[in-house]
Amino acid sequence: MAVTAFHISVPDDVLDDLRARLHRTLFTTASDSTFWAAGVDPGYLRELVAYWADGFDWRKAEAALNAFPHYRAEVAGRQVHFVHLRGRRTEGGPEPLPVVLTHGWPSSFVEMLRVAPLLTEPDDPADAFDVIIPSLPGFLFSELPQGVFTRRGVAEIWHSLMTETLGYRRFGAFGGDIGGGVTQWLGALYPGEVAGVHTTSAVLTTDFSERPATAEEQAYLDGLAEYDVRDQGYSEIMWSRPDTIAAALMDSPAGLVAWIIDKYRDWSDCAGDLETRWDKDTILTVATLYWATGSIGSSFRQYYDYPHNRPVPTITVPAAITLSNEPAYANLPRSLPERVCADLRHWSTPGRGGHFMAHEEPEQVADELRTFFRPLRTEG
């Protein structure tokens, strides 16, 4: 399982074609006079596309990304891309604790880059982490898995990456969204190697046959179902007809970035103002990565294969939740994740930082990770 250094380098002809397509973009008109009420505001999209075509400096963004150490390795027969940052080491001091940070959709490794240096270079060297940030299978520079895409399957790949490829004996895990499911599967499957699991969202058991939902839990589940009716249009097409929508997004960079920022605005803790959390350069860095790798369609695989996922079994390793401040998790009772996590040691509701918390509130996430994992460094 050889590890090779990796350098991001988008060919000039790809960028030239992208710019030409952006200049030819056709825009729709708003279906509702209320700003963003019917999806991405056409006026904002026009402004963003114009900047992407004639203002955004991809080569500057590419150089900033390449300042991080990137690698690829063959794991389970497929290429996995990851960033690997070594934590500060002091003579006679403890070794940094390895931690794997897993993003979700429509995200990327970029989500974790703001928090990574805070983890590798803390004020107290005893709190240092080695940080590993893989790209999910089918996202950007990581190949789709062999067979179906499940959270459990990704956890198995990550375990192999961490223990066999990188040689870590013990490690922690953090993530949200898909990454939260992968993180919890790591804890459920590998209690001998996983020191603890920390998520910003809760994976809920769907089996209430032995212990019916309490009134508080049912009220939350009913509210979540109501929210999903308003929010789930994007997922309905991606799990039922992913190739249809992918055909449009693979051909239109404007459509691609619209599809992404629709969820960035909805799920971020931005009070409706997208750029308080995602400036244009960061948005377009992510969009250009998706465009240049042609991976928006393959990123949908985890939706199409979603029915193959099973409820996460009981997690016995120490667990932590720093709850995302987004509508899907409003009023989530602690008792629901406690049905899955037998040892929920850390429960935090800071009230800031949404679906992409590591990007939105990196200092908060770094502090929460240090606090949770500090006593676990010497356990096991």
UniProtKB/TrEMBL annotation:
InterPro entries: AB_hydrolase_fold (IPR029058), Epox_hydrolase-like (IPR000639), Epoxide_hydro_N (IPR010497), Epoxide_hydrolase (IPR016292). Pfam families: EHN. The keyword Transferase does not apply. Keywords: Aromatic hydrocarbons catabolism, Hydrolase. Gene3D superfamilies: alpha/beta hydrolase. Residues 4-112 form the Epoxide hydrolase N-terminal domain. Belongs to the peptidase S33 family. This is Pimeloyl-ACP methyl ester carboxylesterase. It comes from Nonomuraea africana.
